[in-house]
Design goal:
The chain has 13 helices and 11 strands. It is an alpha/beta fold and 389 residues long.
Protein backbone atom coordinates (compact mmCIF):
# COMPACT_ATOMS: atom_id res chain seq x y z
CA UNK A 1 0.00 0.00 0.00
CA UNK A 2 2.65 2.49 -1.07
CA UNK A 3 0.36 5.16 -2.53
CA UNK A 4 -2.61 6.64 -0.68
CA UNK A 5 -5.97 6.06 -2.36
CA UNK A 6 -9.36 7.23 -1.11
CA UNK A 7 -13.04 7.26 -1.79
CA UNK A 8 -13.21 10.98 -2.46
CA UNK A 9 -16.89 11.40 -3.34
CA UNK A 10 -20.05 9.34 -2.95
CA UNK A 11 -23.78 9.81 -3.48
CA UNK A 12 -26.93 7.70 -3.68
CA UNK A 13 -30.41 7.77 -5.14
CA UNK A 14 -33.19 7.45 -2.60
CA UNK A 15 -34.25 3.80 -2.37
CA UNK A 16 -37.80 3.19 -3.57
CA UNK A 17 -39.65 2.07 -6.67
CA UNK A 18 -39.07 3.69 -10.06
CA UNK A 19 -41.62 1.99 -12.34
CA UNK A 20 -41.49 4.69 -14.99
CA UNK A 21 -37.71 4.68 -15.38
CA UNK A 22 -35.43 2.29 -17.22
CA UNK A 23 -32.50 0.80 -15.37
CA UNK A 24 -30.12 2.73 -17.60
CA UNK A 25 -31.80 6.00 -16.70
CA UNK A 26 -31.12 5.14 -13.03
CA UNK A 27 -27.41 4.85 -13.91
CA UNK A 28 -27.59 8.26 -15.52
CA UNK A 29 -29.39 9.70 -12.50
CA UNK A 30 -26.81 8.23 -10.11
CA UNK A 31 -23.96 9.85 -12.04
CA UNK A 32 -25.80 13.16 -12.35
CA UNK A 33 -26.38 13.20 -8.59
CA UNK A 34 -22.69 12.60 -7.86
CA UNK A 35 -21.58 15.34 -10.26
CA UNK A 36 -24.11 17.77 -8.78
CA UNK A 37 -22.97 17.14 -5.21
CA UNK A 38 -19.18 17.15 -5.73
CA UNK A 39 -16.76 19.41 -7.67
CA UNK A 40 -15.68 16.68 -10.09
CA UNK A 41 -14.41 17.80 -13.49
CA UNK A 42 -14.66 15.63 -16.59
CA UNK A 43 -10.88 15.38 -16.75
CA UNK A 44 -10.75 13.90 -13.24
CA UNK A 45 -12.16 10.58 -14.47
CA UNK A 46 -9.94 8.20 -16.42
CA UNK A 47 -11.50 4.89 -15.39
CA UNK A 48 -15.05 3.58 -15.17
CA UNK A 49 -16.37 0.50 -13.36
CA UNK A 50 -20.03 -0.42 -13.62
CA UNK A 51 -22.19 -3.20 -12.21
CA UNK A 52 -24.32 -4.99 -14.83
CA UNK A 53 -27.98 -4.04 -15.18
CA UNK A 54 -30.83 -6.50 -14.82
CA UNK A 55 -28.96 -9.34 -13.10
CA UNK A 56 -31.54 -9.55 -10.31
CA UNK A 57 -34.15 -10.47 -12.91
CA UNK A 58 -32.10 -13.41 -14.12
CA UNK A 59 -30.99 -11.78 -17.37
CA UNK A 60 -28.58 -8.93 -17.98
CA UNK A 61 -30.33 -5.95 -19.54
CA UNK A 62 -27.03 -4.69 -20.89
CA UNK A 63 -23.76 -6.36 -19.98
CA UNK A 64 -21.87 -3.56 -21.74
CA UNK A 65 -23.19 -0.73 -19.61
CA UNK A 66 -19.74 0.82 -19.40
CA UNK A 67 -19.59 1.37 -23.17
CA UNK A 68 -22.80 3.39 -23.20
CA UNK A 69 -21.76 5.45 -20.18
CA UNK A 70 -18.28 6.20 -21.54
CA UNK A 71 -19.91 7.51 -24.70
CA UNK A 72 -22.60 9.50 -22.88
CA UNK A 73 -20.09 11.09 -20.49
CA UNK A 74 -17.62 11.86 -23.26
CA UNK A 75 -14.81 10.15 -21.36
CA UNK A 76 -11.36 9.29 -22.65
CA UNK A 77 -11.10 6.28 -20.35
CA UNK A 78 -7.84 4.35 -20.01
CA UNK A 79 -9.92 1.41 -18.82
CA UNK A 80 -13.62 0.64 -18.41
CA UNK A 81 -15.41 -2.53 -17.43
CA UNK A 82 -18.77 -3.97 -16.45
CA UNK A 83 -18.03 -6.39 -13.64
CA UNK A 84 -20.22 -8.74 -11.60
CA UNK A 85 -19.48 -10.27 -8.22
CA UNK A 86 -23.07 -10.10 -7.00
CA UNK A 87 -23.54 -8.08 -3.83
CA UNK A 88 -19.75 -7.90 -3.43
CA UNK A 89 -19.39 -6.02 -6.73
CA UNK A 90 -19.37 -2.58 -5.15
CA UNK A 91 -16.58 -3.33 -2.69
CA UNK A 92 -14.64 -5.20 -5.38
CA UNK A 93 -14.92 -2.16 -7.66
CA UNK A 94 -13.14 -0.11 -4.98
CA UNK A 95 -10.37 -2.70 -4.86
CA UNK A 96 -9.97 -2.80 -8.65
CA UNK A 97 -9.98 1.00 -8.80
CA UNK A 98 -7.28 1.23 -6.13
CA UNK A 99 -5.10 -1.26 -7.99
CA UNK A 100 -5.49 0.72 -11.22
CA UNK A 101 -4.62 4.03 -9.55
CA UNK A 102 -1.54 2.53 -7.89
CA UNK A 103 -0.51 1.09 -11.25
CA UNK A 104 -0.65 4.57 -12.77
CA UNK A 105 -3.59 3.84 -15.07
CA UNK A 106 -5.81 6.56 -13.63
CA UNK A 107 -6.11 9.40 -11.15
CA UNK A 108 -9.83 8.95 -10.66
CA UNK A 109 -12.09 5.94 -11.22
CA UNK A 110 -15.85 6.37 -11.33
CA UNK A 111 -17.80 3.42 -9.88
CA UNK A 112 -21.52 3.26 -10.69
CA UNK A 113 -24.40 0.92 -9.96
CA UNK A 114 -28.16 0.95 -10.29
CA UNK A 115 -30.64 -1.83 -9.90
CA UNK A 116 -34.09 -3.13 -9.35
CA UNK A 117 -35.27 -5.89 -7.06
CA UNK A 118 -37.47 -8.41 -8.89
CA UNK A 119 -41.06 -8.94 -7.86
CA UNK A 120 -40.60 -11.90 -5.55
CA UNK A 121 -44.31 -12.67 -5.76
CA UNK A 122 -44.39 -12.63 -9.54
CA UNK A 123 -41.83 -15.20 -10.62
CA UNK A 124 -38.75 -13.41 -9.31
CA UNK A 125 -38.05 -16.10 -6.72
CA UNK A 126 -38.10 -18.83 -9.36
CA UNK A 127 -35.70 -16.93 -11.64
CA UNK A 128 -33.28 -16.31 -8.79
CA UNK A 129 -33.35 -19.97 -7.79
CA UNK A 130 -32.09 -20.91 -11.25
CA UNK A 131 -29.15 -18.54 -10.74
CA UNK A 132 -28.20 -19.41 -7.17
CA UNK A 133 -29.20 -23.06 -6.62
CA UNK A 134 -27.09 -26.07 -7.59
CA UNK A 135 -28.85 -27.89 -10.46
CA UNK A 136 -28.23 -31.35 -8.98
CA UNK A 137 -28.30 -30.83 -5.22
CA UNK A 138 -30.61 -27.84 -4.72
CA UNK A 139 -32.89 -26.96 -7.62
CA UNK A 140 -34.76 -30.26 -7.73
CA UNK A 141 -36.08 -29.56 -4.21
CA UNK A 142 -37.63 -26.26 -5.33
CA UNK A 143 -35.86 -23.85 -2.99
CA UNK A 144 -35.85 -20.09 -3.22
CA UNK A 145 -33.42 -17.63 -1.66
CA UNK A 146 -34.63 -17.48 1.99
CA UNK A 147 -34.45 -21.28 2.54
CA UNK A 148 -30.94 -21.36 1.07
CA UNK A 149 -29.75 -18.73 3.57
CA UNK A 150 -31.76 -20.43 6.30
CA UNK A 151 -29.53 -23.50 6.08
CA UNK A 152 -26.51 -21.46 7.20
CA UNK A 153 -28.44 -19.62 9.91
CA UNK A 154 -29.92 -22.85 11.27
CA UNK A 155 -26.51 -24.50 11.44
CA UNK A 156 -24.99 -21.55 13.29
CA UNK A 157 -27.92 -21.45 15.70
CA UNK A 158 -27.45 -25.16 16.37
CA UNK A 159 -23.70 -24.88 16.98
CA UNK A 160 -23.90 -21.93 19.37
CA UNK A 161 -27.40 -22.05 20.86
CA UNK A 162 -28.46 -18.68 19.41
CA UNK A 163 -32.20 -17.99 19.32
CA UNK A 164 -34.53 -15.88 17.22
CA UNK A 165 -34.51 -13.18 19.90
CA UNK A 166 -31.01 -12.23 18.74
CA UNK A 167 -32.24 -11.93 15.16
CA UNK A 168 -35.07 -9.71 16.34
CA UNK A 169 -32.53 -7.50 18.15
CA UNK A 170 -30.67 -7.00 14.85
CA UNK A 171 -33.85 -5.91 13.05
CA UNK A 172 -34.89 -3.59 15.90
CA UNK A 173 -31.47 -1.91 16.07
CA UNK A 174 -31.28 -1.36 12.33
CA UNK A 175 -34.75 0.14 12.22
CA UNK A 176 -33.62 2.57 14.93
CA UNK A 177 -30.66 3.55 12.74
CA UNK A 178 -32.90 3.92 9.66
CA UNK A 179 -35.13 6.38 11.49
CA UNK A 180 -32.14 8.75 11.62
CA UNK A 181 -31.51 8.50 7.85
CA UNK A 182 -33.60 10.81 5.64
CA UNK A 183 -33.38 8.46 2.64
CA UNK A 184 -34.01 5.13 4.39
CA UNK A 185 -37.03 3.34 2.98
CA UNK A 186 -38.38 2.33 6.39
CA UNK A 187 -37.59 5.60 8.20
CA UNK A 188 -41.23 6.67 8.18
CA UNK A 189 -42.56 3.33 9.42
CA UNK A 190 -41.81 4.07 13.05
CA UNK A 191 -39.84 2.04 15.59
CA UNK A 192 -39.79 -1.75 15.49
CA UNK A 193 -40.22 -4.04 18.49
CA UNK A 194 -38.78 -7.48 19.05
CA UNK A 195 -42.32 -8.81 19.49
CA UNK A 196 -43.33 -7.48 16.08
CA UNK A 197 -40.36 -9.24 14.45
CA UNK A 198 -41.00 -12.53 16.25
CA UNK A 199 -44.73 -12.43 15.46
CA UNK A 200 -44.40 -11.44 11.80
CA UNK A 201 -45.39 -13.89 9.07
CA UNK A 202 -43.13 -16.97 8.76
CA UNK A 203 -41.13 -17.11 5.52
CA UNK A 204 -38.59 -19.94 5.87
CA UNK A 205 -37.52 -21.09 9.32
CA UNK A 206 -35.90 -19.36 11.15
CA UNK A 207 -36.79 -16.27 9.06
CA UNK A 208 -40.01 -14.32 9.46
CA UNK A 209 -41.04 -11.39 7.29
CA UNK A 210 -39.30 -8.72 9.37
CA UNK A 211 -36.07 -10.74 9.35
CA UNK A 212 -35.87 -10.17 5.59
CA UNK A 213 -34.43 -7.25 3.63
CA UNK A 214 -36.82 -4.78 1.97
CA UNK A 215 -36.92 -5.10 -1.84
CA UNK A 216 -36.66 -1.82 -3.76
CA UNK A 217 -34.88 0.00 -6.58
CA UNK A 218 -32.03 2.47 -6.36
CA UNK A 219 -28.39 3.10 -7.08
CA UNK A 220 -25.47 5.38 -6.56
CA UNK A 221 -21.96 6.32 -7.56
CA UNK A 222 -18.60 7.00 -5.97
CA UNK A 223 -15.17 8.17 -7.08
CA UNK A 224 -11.96 6.42 -6.05
CA UNK A 225 -9.08 8.85 -6.35
CA UNK A 226 -5.37 9.29 -5.93
CA UNK A 227 -4.17 11.30 -2.94
CA UNK A 228 -3.70 14.44 -5.03
CA UNK A 229 -7.20 14.32 -6.50
CA UNK A 230 -8.88 13.16 -3.27
CA UNK A 231 -7.49 16.10 -1.29
CA UNK A 232 -8.66 18.55 -3.94
CA UNK A 233 -12.21 17.20 -3.96
CA UNK A 234 -12.78 16.52 -0.28
CA UNK A 235 -11.19 17.94 2.89
CA UNK A 236 -11.81 14.60 4.61
CA UNK A 237 -11.83 11.66 2.18
CA UNK A 238 -12.39 8.06 3.24
CA UNK A 239 -8.93 6.52 2.78
CA UNK A 240 -8.74 2.92 1.62
CA UNK A 241 -6.48 1.45 4.29
CA UNK A 242 -6.78 -2.24 3.45
CA UNK A 243 -8.83 -4.78 1.57
CA UNK A 244 -9.25 -8.50 1.03
CA UNK A 245 -11.24 -10.88 -1.15
CA UNK A 246 -12.12 -14.57 -1.07
CA UNK A 247 -13.90 -16.65 -3.72
CA UNK A 248 -14.42 -20.31 -2.84
CA UNK A 249 -17.64 -21.83 -4.17
CA UNK A 250 -21.04 -21.16 -5.71
CA UNK A 251 -23.54 -23.12 -3.63
CA UNK A 252 -24.41 -23.47 0.05
CA UNK A 253 -24.86 -27.21 -0.48
CA UNK A 254 -21.11 -27.41 -1.14
CA UNK A 255 -20.21 -25.67 2.13
CA UNK A 256 -18.24 -27.95 4.45
CA UNK A 257 -18.44 -25.80 7.58
CA UNK A 258 -19.26 -22.27 8.66
CA UNK A 259 -15.52 -21.59 8.82
CA UNK A 260 -15.41 -22.20 5.06
CA UNK A 261 -17.64 -19.26 4.12
CA UNK A 262 -14.73 -17.01 3.09
CA UNK A 263 -15.46 -13.74 4.84
CA UNK A 264 -13.03 -14.59 7.62
CA UNK A 265 -10.13 -14.97 5.18
CA UNK A 266 -11.01 -11.73 3.38
CA UNK A 267 -11.08 -9.89 6.72
CA UNK A 268 -7.70 -11.26 7.78
CA UNK A 269 -6.19 -10.06 4.50
CA UNK A 270 -7.68 -6.58 4.94
CA UNK A 271 -6.41 -6.26 8.54
CA UNK A 272 -2.94 -7.41 7.51
CA UNK A 273 -2.73 -4.94 4.62
CA UNK A 274 -3.89 -2.04 6.79
CA UNK A 275 -1.76 -3.06 9.79
CA UNK A 276 -4.94 -2.83 11.85
CA UNK A 277 -6.78 -5.21 14.18
CA UNK A 278 -10.50 -5.81 14.83
CA UNK A 279 -10.20 -3.69 17.98
CA UNK A 280 -9.41 -0.67 15.77
CA UNK A 281 -12.80 -0.86 13.99
CA UNK A 282 -15.31 1.69 15.28
CA UNK A 283 -18.11 1.10 12.73
CA UNK A 284 -19.11 -1.99 10.73
CA UNK A 285 -21.26 -2.03 7.62
CA UNK A 286 -22.26 -5.66 7.02
CA UNK A 287 -24.30 -6.84 4.03
CA UNK A 288 -27.54 -8.11 5.57
CA UNK A 289 -29.99 -9.86 3.28
CA UNK A 290 -31.46 -11.35 6.46
CA UNK A 291 -31.27 -10.50 10.15
CA UNK A 292 -28.89 -13.38 10.76
CA UNK A 293 -26.13 -12.08 8.49
CA UNK A 294 -24.88 -9.39 10.93
CA UNK A 295 -24.71 -12.03 13.69
CA UNK A 296 -22.40 -14.10 11.51
CA UNK A 297 -20.69 -10.95 10.30
CA UNK A 298 -19.49 -9.59 13.64
CA UNK A 299 -18.02 -13.03 14.39
CA UNK A 300 -16.42 -13.61 11.01
CA UNK A 301 -14.95 -10.10 10.92
CA UNK A 302 -13.30 -10.80 14.30
CA UNK A 303 -15.37 -8.13 16.07
CA UNK A 304 -16.66 -10.58 18.67
CA UNK A 305 -15.68 -14.17 19.58
CA UNK A 306 -17.26 -17.12 17.79
CA UNK A 307 -20.71 -17.83 19.17
CA UNK A 308 -21.06 -14.37 20.74
CA UNK A 309 -22.65 -12.57 17.79
CA UNK A 310 -26.15 -13.06 19.17
CA UNK A 311 -25.20 -11.66 22.58
CA UNK A 312 -23.53 -8.69 20.83
CA UNK A 313 -26.88 -7.58 19.41
CA UNK A 314 -28.99 -8.57 22.41
CA UNK A 315 -26.77 -6.26 24.47
CA UNK A 316 -27.47 -3.41 22.03
CA UNK A 317 -23.84 -2.98 21.05
CA UNK A 318 -24.61 -2.47 17.35
CA UNK A 319 -27.68 -0.24 17.81
CA UNK A 320 -27.70 3.54 18.32
CA UNK A 321 -25.83 4.28 21.54
CA UNK A 322 -23.87 1.02 21.35
CA UNK A 323 -20.09 0.84 21.50
CA UNK A 324 -19.68 -0.61 17.97
CA UNK A 325 -22.36 0.65 15.56
CA UNK A 326 -23.44 -1.84 12.90
CA UNK A 327 -25.29 -0.80 9.71
CA UNK A 328 -25.83 2.79 10.74
CA UNK A 329 -27.95 3.50 7.65
CA UNK A 330 -30.46 0.78 8.61
CA UNK A 331 -28.88 -1.87 6.41
CA UNK A 332 -30.71 -3.74 3.70
CA UNK A 333 -33.32 -4.59 6.35
CA UNK A 334 -34.46 -0.98 6.76
CA UNK A 335 -32.53 1.29 4.38
CA UNK A 336 -33.58 -0.92 1.47
CA UNK A 337 -32.26 -3.77 -0.67
CA UNK A 338 -31.76 -2.01 -3.99
CA UNK A 339 -31.45 -5.04 -6.25
CA UNK A 340 -28.14 -5.21 -8.11
CA UNK A 341 -27.00 -1.97 -6.43
CA UNK A 342 -27.50 -3.10 -2.83
CA UNK A 343 -23.82 -3.45 -1.92
CA UNK A 344 -23.24 0.18 -2.85
CA UNK A 345 -25.37 1.40 0.05
CA UNK A 346 -23.19 -0.65 2.43
CA UNK A 347 -20.01 1.01 1.17
CA UNK A 348 -21.55 4.47 0.84
CA UNK A 349 -22.62 4.60 4.47
CA UNK A 350 -19.16 3.65 5.72
CA UNK A 351 -17.55 6.29 3.49
CA UNK A 352 -19.97 9.00 4.59
CA UNK A 353 -19.39 8.18 8.26
CA UNK A 354 -15.61 8.36 7.87
CA UNK A 355 -15.98 11.62 5.95
CA UNK A 356 -18.10 13.05 8.78
CA UNK A 357 -21.07 13.54 6.44
CA UNK A 358 -23.65 11.21 8.04
CA UNK A 359 -25.89 13.86 9.55
CA UNK A 360 -27.99 12.93 12.59
CA UNK A 361 -26.63 9.38 12.66
CA UNK A 362 -22.97 10.45 12.66
CA UNK A 363 -20.70 8.42 14.94
CA UNK A 364 -17.00 8.64 15.68
CA UNK A 365 -15.58 6.38 12.97
CA UNK A 366 -11.85 6.84 12.39
CA UNK A 367 -11.84 3.27 11.02
CA UNK A 368 -14.86 1.63 9.38
CA UNK A 369 -15.16 -1.93 8.09
CA UNK A 370 -17.22 -2.87 5.03
CA UNK A 371 -18.14 -6.50 4.33
CA UNK A 372 -20.06 -7.41 1.19
CA UNK A 373 -20.75 -10.82 -0.27
CA UNK A 374 -22.08 -12.08 -3.57
CA UNK A 375 -24.33 -14.98 -4.44
CA UNK A 376 -25.27 -17.26 -1.57
CA UNK A 377 -22.47 -15.88 0.63
CA UNK A 378 -20.10 -17.25 -2.01
CA UNK A 379 -17.79 -14.32 -2.77
CA UNK A 380 -16.52 -11.97 -0.08
CA UNK A 381 -14.88 -8.55 -0.11
CA UNK A 382 -13.78 -6.58 2.94
CA UNK A 383 -12.64 -2.95 2.99
CA UNK A 384 -11.12 -0.95 5.82
CA UNK A 385 -11.72 2.79 5.43
CA UNK A 386 -10.00 5.38 7.61
CA UNK A 387 -10.02 9.13 8.19
CA UNK A 388 -6.23 9.21 7.67
CA UNK A 389 -4.13 7.53 4.95
Amino acid sequence: MSAAVAIAAVSQLAPGRYPDRSTHSLYQAAIATLLAEWPIRSGDIQGLLVAPAGMADGVAENIFVHERLVEELGLEATFAETINVGGATHAVMAIRAALAIRAGLADGVLCVSAGRFPNVGGGGAERNTRIFAHPDFDSLYGPYIPPIYAQVATRHMHEYGIGRDAMAAVAVGQRAWARQHPQALMASRGPLTAEAVLDSRPIASPFHLLDCSVPCDGGGAYLVASERLARRLNPKPAWLRGYGEMHRRANVSQLRSLDDLGGQAAARAAYAMADLAPADVRLAQLYDSFSYNPILGVEHMGLTPAGQGGRFFLDGRGAPGGDLPVNSNGGLLSFGHTGDASGLSVLAEAALQVMGRAGARQVAAPVALVHCYGGMMSEHAVLLLGDAP
